[in-house]
Amino acid sequence: xxxxxxxGTILYNTGFLGNLIGSERTFVDMALxxxxxxxxxxxxxxxxxxxxxxxxxxxxxxxxxxxxxxxxVNPKADTIEGLKCFPELESIGDTPDxxxxxVPAKIVPSVMQxxxxxxxxxxxxxxxAFREVGKEGRALEEQVIQIAKQAGIRVIGPNCLGLxxxxxxxxASFGGDLPAxxxxxxxxxxxxxLAAILDMANASDIGFSKLVSIGNKADVDELDLIEAVAADDxxxxxxxxxxxxxxxxxxVRLAEQISHIKPILLMKSGGTQAGAKAASSHTGSLAxxxxxxxxxxxxxxxxxxxxxxxxxDYAQAFANQPLPAGPRVAVVTNAGGPxxxxxxxxxxxxxxxxxxxxxxVSKLTSRLPPAANLHNPxxxxxxxxxxxxxxxxxxxxxxxxxxxxxxxLTPQAMTESAATAEAIVKVSRRKPTKPVLACFLGxxxxxxxxxxxxxxxxxxxxxxxxxxxxxxxxVRYVGWLSKPKRVxxxxxxxxxxxxxxxxxxxxxxxxxxxxxxxKEILEAYGFVTPKGSIATTxxxxxxxxxxxxxxxxxxxWSPDILHKSDxxxxxxxxxxxxxxxxxxxxxxxxxxxxxxxxxxxxxxxxEMCRKGKEVILGMNRDPHFGALMxxxxxxxxxxxxxxxxxYLAPLTAQEAKQMLINTKTYRILQGVRGDVGVxxxxxxxxxxxxxxxxxxxxxxxxxxxNPYVIGPEGTTPIAVDARITLEP
Amino acid sequence: xxxxxxxGTILYNTGFLGNLIGSERTFVDMALxxxxxxxxxxxxxxxxxxxxxxxxxxxxxxxxxxxxxxxxVNPKADTIEGLKCFPELESIGDTPDxxxxxVPAKIVPSVMQxxxxxxxxxxxxxxxAFREVGKEGRALEEQVIQIAKQAGIRVIGPNCLGLxxxxxxxxASFGGDLPAxxxxxxxxxxxxxLAAILDMANASDIGFSKLVSIGNKADVDELDLIEAVAADDxxxxxxxxxxxxxxxxxxVRLAEQISHIKPILLMKSGGTQAGAKAASSHTGSLAxxxxxxxxxxxxxxxxxxxxxxxxxDYAQAFANQPLPAGPRVAVVTNAGGPxxxxxxxxxxxxxxxxxxxxxxVSKLTSRLPPAANLHNPxxxxxxxxxxxxxxxxxxxxxxxxxxxxxxxLTPQAMTESAATAEAIVKVSRRKPTKPVLACFLGxxxxxxxxxxxxxxxxxxxxxxxxxxxxxxxxVRYVGWLSKPKRVxxxxxxxxxxxxxxxxxxxxxxxxxxxxxxxKEILEAYGFVTPKGSIATTxxxxxxxxxxxxxxxxxxxWSPDILHKSDxxxxxxxxxxxxxxxxxxxxxxxxxxxxxxxxxxxxxxxxEMCRKGKEVILGMNRDPHFGALMxxxxxxxxxxxxxxxxxYLAPLTAQEAKQMLINTKTYRILQGVRGDVGVxxxxxxxxxxxxxxxxxxxxxxxxxxxNPYVIGPEGTTPIAVDARITLEP
Lengths: 728, 728
Hints:
The structure is a homodimer. Chain A is α/β, with parallel strands linked by helices.
């Protein structure tokens, strides 16, 4: 996704992936044709030796029953496994749609040259020992990509496991046997993990539309591939394992669009310090901030998974069942214990344990035995056969107060696991608008039933807890989908003014902006700062204080003193002329003694904001995702509770408000114990204005307004102090 | 555990389970002999019909290869499955060690009479339709237990699945096939769940020492059985699924002792509102408070599990591996991705990702390929064979800075799953002092290896995350084990005084204790309350205020007014004689108008505690576990953050202090931003005194001291106000 800038803009404006694909078809088209559905595949480095990857890929291609032509390329063999072998690409006499390269790293550039010569457009480089082994490898990788760019070749890899498309019988990988065809696309930055996933999936009938090992992402990256599988009709769910993201901003913008069409389930590792260190020594890439990732995923609707198991738990449901209309969960079970566990899990996740409608209960009464529990969880009892399950599920699914049904089964003496599974599949198909999930507990005794469920599209879980976690993920996704369209408000501001200040500082290589100019920047973006003026004599100071009204604050005024408090250059809460005069004289007398070289321009006399609560508005620029906005409660709360929240800029009004709500002590802002609350919309506006400022000025690396003093509704918040750091 | 009172006391005093078992052998002995290892078993209600439970249990007994004698009892059959059948118990002519009853509920009492007559001591009642179906069933159950008690018979059930002892080839259940013998004892309150567990365990070679379905717990309860398996040599780990606990206090006291000898892993459901409701409609028992359960489990060292899967994840490690000496985890892997996942999981759990010793790194360098990562996670690379794993694991296990090693494997082209597993088992056995866990990712390709690991005692996990969660459980258990012995300090108090007040109130059926007497109670237990006296005239009020020093508080004084604030009967912050006189006169004038019937004795003039921070000390009596102490931060913190913590009484000094530390804003007590901290030990002492009071007076149902005003070190905290409610 190297030329995303343009695509991103189009996307952002139209809001339709269709348009994007219409306007920027290059990689998506190539992926769908040459990579996912090639008419012919050349394997450069194909081998006769069974222990070699060059043999395994060829064998996998043949075993999978690939329908197109296969050209093994190896100067040392005439035939491999009965196929005619070519000494080099040129000798094929035809241009293969896809070339798989397995030769040693040093030879890869020359093979790429051949690809260019023959007119190949799609290449997968399996070979390792590139960027991941250090400087030399990195140079080699750059050389390869250079050739590719010049020739218009797109490259997956190097250092990858290959590509699998079950529906096309294409197994261009050394990952394992061809899995079943299905609706899940899987992209993995770890080849070894993909092999394990393939093995697990094959053991439990999980089907895939595409499996791609993305390797070093030297050319084609996760974003290209997400875009391609988003456009792929066979893919209903996009899942992936990532250790790093190549272009955070582009990623967020595209993922946000795609999430509206297909759910994206990601497992992202390397989020902790220990994990980041391990990732960095493994891939040589820098892990981004975990907070920024969280925020990016939330914004773009990506469903984050904590483990591979969880990812497949979720993927099964998203691929096979409709989305629930709401959070109300009903349970049908043949045993009390698991029913209680499910109820616990529903409440712990913040979902709703459905209260069944009166009609539903009457209907259940009519055919269930007297000892059955007719309320949620509906207990059809230990002797329930398939027909009783079918009846109960049917009735409960019809309940207007139920959004999703979880069917639990434990293998008891009379239990019909397979027949019950068939009944569940039947009812689920008959009522395709509400999701049905199942949890058959056990192993051998429920094996047949589990297979029936899986093949019938009813996702099966190994515990009530994991089924409920999946329902929760679906409900959260529906919540994200139903959010209003993001509209970022643009405030009228004096951009030119800030431009001048920022450019002047950068020219002079001054990276921290001083108080006067910080204030000017804030005012240019509509913030109100405390009134005040510079005094050069005690008389002046007293006069200014008189005009402002007491109490006032005095601050030493010098371009050379950034940390005023440290040198006794700040006095707050001055309540009388005498206090002002004393403070002025003491500063003027003492500070030059401490800092003889500081050029002192005077003392700032400023109104003091006493009323209202103090909060902090801030921004940090994340290396991957750009401006990450911060909101924090002031005072002791920040220090003791770290009561802050984050979100990526640019902020909408809703997102800014959500940042406030996400703090633990939000209620303090609303007012507790008779205390009048503060004007919450004005804080949210402050965050949006700051978001606009840092979005329009990417030169600002870090910034915070602290304290931002905010009073009751209708009052004007004051940006008392700001710290702005630029990036050269 | 009906006669636990005595046992509990003995335990508590000696601190050794051995002593308990020595002095109270009745049930433990019977369990180990008649229930777990009977020489003969009678099956009353044995049936020839294959669909009946009475047939299934007999068949299971025979299939398991039980070595003792089996007596089917059924008046309608001569033989069943080739065994001679008896018309009734008496006709056997011998007293069976164990009787299993499967006849319809109404007939159970008469069978119990026969048991009594024949001299049977151990009975399992499989039959359902007792307490769980309502009033009639409850009466029937009571009748059965009545007979049992008179005859000295101990009963497991009714409404249960039975009992399994693999090592003795005893399968007295209709739960499923006999599992492998092992070191895990499993007790389940849900029969259906036990059947599912059995099925899962049989599919993955998990072995058990005992499996017991505890049913309605009409006689033998979870505590009896925990005690029995604690004394059982074959059991190394006690695991169980519970929906309710019969005797909370006894449970905590015994579990605390047993946890020092064997780990107890419990899954407790019904903790949420929805879960409790489901549990109550299922079992008819009342779920206790979740907080009390948490606290009880923490106190007694019980390892709580969130799911059955997690329980077996944990049990495998506890049953087969030594405990880690500390939290430092090292990882050996053949793939980067899973290594990063493990590092993430370690940090998220708060464990330490080990930094390998220099020697270890040098040793690894000597034999690993140059591309291998020699630091944690140690990456032996994708082409690692078993010998490379063996070498790396051996070296890493020797590192003095490593407490536990997790070995990860993904199935790659050259991977030797089974041979690697053998190598791991070998090294683990060679170095039996440090725990080794494994996570072989995949399915068919690692199946053999997984089997080798399981049989070799190296626990195997399906994800790095679940392996790390298990390590975390082990480290937490070690932390609990290393806690100092609990010593509850007894303060010298005036118990007689409180006794008088409490008894007088109860005699008069007054359940809320008024301010004067609450104060007397507090003072009797060493709390300091604010100084003050009752004034009946404004002059007196002014005099008292003068003596106390301003500011003061005025409170209306009447036995008939409990909520003084509601009627304007409290005025705080009075700073002068004039304010005191005004407040006095207004109260005396206005309150009788509002409450003409209230008998007003005067106005309390009290010193006002301004300095220091306000906290809350409290107690609620949980129906299962008794006095649950509460500590809360005062003011806005409690209201907004619900910043409170709980622990079961009686509190040790360490536990009281931990309650403070467990609040989110503990640092505020320590002092932040130059603010002087408060005397933390005095708060802890207050909690211990309150704990002693409510322990010595179980008549106190609820109590709190709010606010408890606490100043800097060396100052005396003041118990300003208290609320005490008695239980009739």
